[in-house]
Write a structure and sequence with these properties.
Blueprint (H helix, E strand, L loop, with lengths): L5 H29 L2 H8 L6 H9 L8 E4 L3 E5 L6 H7 L5 E4 L5 E3 L1 E2 L4 E5 L14 E4 L22 E2 L4 E7 L3 E7 L14 E7 L7 E4 L2 E3 L2 E5 L9 E7 L7 E2 L2 E2 L14 E9 L6 H11 L3 E6 L6 H10 L4 E5 L6 H11 L4 E6 L4 E4 L13 H5 L6 E10 L13 H4 L2 E2 L4 E8 L21 E5 L5 E4 L5 H4 L46 E2 L2 H10 L1 E2 L5 E2 L5
Length: 552
Amino acid sequence: MRRRPATSLFSFAVFVFVFVFLAASFSFRASRDFLPSAALNSMALRRPLTSRAVSELLGSPPPPPLDAVLLPDWEVLLVLSPESSPSAAAAAATDTSLFCLFHTGDSSPARRAGAAAFRCSLPHRLRRIRPFYAPRLIAASASSSSSAATGHDFDFPRREMIRWSMPVAYQSFSTEDEVIVFAKGINRRKHSVRPAADIKCVFSPASGGPALAATPATSSAQEAFRCPHPSVRLPSPSRVSLAVALEAAPIATVAEYRRPSFGGRPPSRSRVGICACTMVFNAAKFLPEWVAYHAAVGVERFFLYDNASEDELDPVVKRLGSEGYDVIVRSWPWPKTQEAGFSHCAVSNRHECEWMAFIDVDEFILAPAWSNFNSPNRSMLGSLLAVQPEFGQVSIRCLEFGPSGQQRHPQAGVTQGYTCRRRAEQRHKSLVRLDAIDNSLINSIHHFILKDSFKTKFMGRWEARVNHYKYQAWTEFKIKFRRRVSTYVPDWKQSTSLGSQDRVPGLGFEAIEPLGWTGMFCEVNDTLLQETTQKWFGAVSLEGEYRMPWQN
């Protein structure tokens, strides 16, 4: 066999080394360019947050207030900040077609993502250009078309967009004594929490400028952080951010800070016994059935945290209001933050509700004994909460229903169309006394951590259950591949956490309908809620079929 000369092997090795070195160097520069300059600055300022560091922080200018966030999948979330121009705010309040205009002249249509937020796509051409600058919101009349006016450098202040993959403070709520700041990227893992002693709340003008005050955090859990109000008077509105021990510069923020103005007294809305809170995305067609049913058994007020819906949510809510239902919609456009949304719901409504049911729009609470009644009454749900004073939470086991042969959303509603379920109980959902929730606001969506003086009552299936219409017709279920709202729930498109209970048996990593989907998860034929609701709400049509009132 002929041997390869040693010089050739040496030359080949040198070539491989140089190639790897250049590739690594290019990768490092590309990843560095991919980070906003604020993030690079914070990486360079890693030092303990001492009292001296705090005094330095108050005298140094923070990053300019940013009102655009670059989300996964190249989506831009444009939040109307307090300093937004009057024309932009006026346009946002009308039905005018709006566009995101970028500094290069490229533009893309803007879709509403709540009362004061919009989404648009980052044009393909700009995905290769660093840094990423925030667009402006413009009306259709201000743009000749939705296509790009390429090559022109538009004259408006440039602000780098916040990367959702980086730490960011995105929401806040003020109580009489504290401000609760909701921020991602600090407590990155479920069981790894940064101590509150390492964190400060930093307050600055909404229009930019030096930080005006900083107060120490008293609580740090999940994405919720508590701090006292600053003692100095701040302009209204202001911004609030967080500074962490190893990163003296405050993290990026779009969170407004407003001190409560009701002088220690709660708002004027009446306090009711039982409310329900849920997070929704394109759930308008499910709402009438869910609201009508739960209002009939005792829920008096509904809070919907809108996770950037693009359907007919507003008209449906207005119709429900005209029919006498108390439904409040709050914009919550932040992706994968359901735990934080529920924490916000719990702390912001403690003066309005005694108990709160944290359930989804595909979940229905049912006590088997209710089927003996010919009509519902509003004391039914309250009877489940007639517990001893030491109980601050009632948890009810879930029964998961499958597609039940359905190929599309059943017109008569989920309670009528899905009647076949799995045999075993799966997880639970809870009704919580809001004054019993622990100061940390920790929750796992299914239940909250309570104060030490309270306990949780777990109900047996014979007492109550939750019908969870989880595995619906494929046209509905496949949406979950794109919209996973829980912070710690794995992305089904990634081959991680394969043993998680959140993964669906038989489902792959893409939104492709599994063979035999319509018959999956069908172990028990269960028509208890179907028959009960038909008796309570149904009316016989001319064809002899039951028609439910929410079928409009």
